[in-house]
Amino acid sequence: MADSMKAFFSSDALLGRNGGDEFCILLPNCTLKEADKQLQQFTMLPKTFSYHGEKHTFYISLGYAEYPTFAANHSQLMRCADAALYEIKLHGKNGCMAYRNGLQSGVRKQLGFALKDISEHLPGAFIIYRAAKEDDELFYANVEFLHMTGYKSLDELFRLTKKSFRNLIREDEQKQIESNIWEQIDSGNENDYIHFHLRKADGTYLSVLDHGRIVESQQYGKVFYVLFMDWEDMQIRYSDKFFWQVQGNSD
């Protein structure tokens, strides 16, 4: 990231690192129109890094603000740029935005809460995968999903399933379940439940309910967000509630 900044911006630009994966750029003697053009170009510029001999693509989010239009000092300027940055991150990342009145710096806290607590501590098994009929690809599974299915890590899940959601479905059910999912999507009923047998790490299968939604990702195109529930556990829980309700009414 630092190399790409040094290669792109002129020698009078002040480049810095805020910490972690955040960087900052000060463009002196530059109009807002000129800065807008430069920053948009830099955001869209292809960026890669090498790891173990392989090249990987990465993307950035960039927020910027003009002095003295929105800020009287450097601290205010940084806060405005930060607010624009996190507004972009909330809307899909890989974009560039100028600060405007009304953007709140508190968005950073909102986004941090969403990523950490909803993703990591969601009270249910959750995965994300590419919504492609012929070429699905697993992108993510939370800790609850790994715990429910017995996979030790995301790496093990990806290795044993070859990163395919299809390979999580019991083989004799694959065609029917995939057909049911896409029938729901094509008919507009994307939030219905699907019942099937989910492959665990040890090769056994778990009876589950799948509740999915298809969304548009700026980086990956159409993806599925899917929650899973243990079907047998649900039957036990609901039958217990029903039993106690009947018993209570009888008394």
Report what the structure shows.
The chain is of the alpha+beta class. Helix content is 40%, strand content 27%. It contains eight helices and eleven strands. The termini are far apart.
Identify the notable features of this structure and list them briefly:
alpha+beta; 251 residues; single chain; 5-stranded antiparallel sheet; two-stranded antiparallel ribbon
Structural class: alpha+beta
Average pLDDT, to the nearest integer?
Answer: 83
- Which percent range fits the helix content? 40-55%
User: Tell me about the biggest sheet?
Assistant: 5 strands, antiparallel
> What low-confidence regions span 5 or more consecutive residues with pLDDT below 50?
none
Identify the strand order in the major beta sheet.
8-7-11-10-9
Radius of gyration: 24 Å
Number of helices: 8
In N-to-C order, the SSE pattern is: HEEHEEEHEHEEHHHEEEH
What is the overall shape? elongated
How many β-strand runs? 11
Strand content: 25-35%
Distance between the termini: 70 Å
